[in-house]
Amino acid sequence: MSLNIKPLADRVLVEPAPAETKTASGLIIPDNAKEKPQKGTVVAVGNGKVDEPLTVKVGDTVLYGKYGGTDLKLEGKDYLMMRESDILAII
């Protein structure tokens, strides 16, 4: 994937995973009840800070806070721009 965006410093661009449409028991979740996903794939990273190199890399699947990041729409897709410190874990 080639995006014309390069995050600065310790910022990371994440493509959120699609929201779940069914529960584990098979019930269909209506659109207004779907939770905002808290998992996604890193698609671009900044250069980090001088004293703090980045630990995530492009292609990592990450978990982040429910309200973390800034919503962006690029080339018709939804993304989140966030600081690396908003990422909770790499899975």
TrEMBL record:
InterPro entries for the chain: Chaperonin_GroES (IPR020818), Chaperonin_GroES_sf (IPR037124), Chaprnonin_Cpn10_CS (IPR018369), GroES-like_sf (IPR011032)
Entry keyword Cytoplasm: yes
Intracellular or extracellular location(s): Cytoplasm
GO molecular function (one): protein folding chaperone
Pfam families: Cpn10
Keywords of this entry: Chaperone, Cytoplasm
One cellular component (GO) term of this entry: cytoplasm
Subunit structure: Heptamer of 7 subunits arranged in a ring. Interacts with the chaperonin GroEL.
PANTHER family on file: 10 KDA HEAT SHOCK PROTEIN, CO-CHAPERONIN GROES
Role summary: Together with the chaperonin GroEL, plays an essential role in assisting protein folding. The GroEL-GroES system forms a nano-cage that allows encapsulation of the non-native substrate proteins and provides a physical environment optimized to promote and accelerate protein folding. GroES binds to the apical surface of the GroEL ring, thereby capping the opening of the GroEL channel.
Family: Belongs to the GroES chaperonin family.
Name under which the protein is recorded: Co-chaperonin GroES
Protein species of origin: Polaribacter reichenbachii
Taxonomy of the source species: Bacteria, Pseudomonadati, Bacteroidota, Flavobacteriia, Flavobacteriales
